[in-house]
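Q: Convert this sequence to structure tokens.
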Amino acid sequence: MSLEPINPEELGPPVGYSHGMLAPPGVRLLFVAGQVGWDREQRLVAAELAPQFAQALRNVVQVVERAGGRPEHLARLTIYVTDRAEYIAARREIGRRYREIMGRHYPAMALLVVRGLLDPAAKVEIEATAAIPLAGPAPPAPAAAS
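A:
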């Protein structure tokens, strides 16, 4: 299964994202809640934006993998940052960390600058939608919600 990037010429070439991603028939949609740069103990991994971004993205991928998917099944990412200037300054490092986790898979994305996040020290939050194929091994049973 692969998602099909939809990039109309009229919109110009996207850089680091796709304008749209079309999922084929026979997939399950997974909606991933906003993830911040928390570790297992729900502590931020760093004060800086780039390490928080990488951890938040790894957290998104862990949810997708738990559902039986892979990073390339991510169809959409919405990224919330608290400081536009800090994001621009860290963009190269964020891009490097993104590629370490996602490779060259660029889903549809939106970046929004927000006043703040629930954790006042969090600088980034990422939510996602994945399209996971029905075929293949059954995903592990979900853990009980706490």
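Helices lie at 49-66, 84-102.
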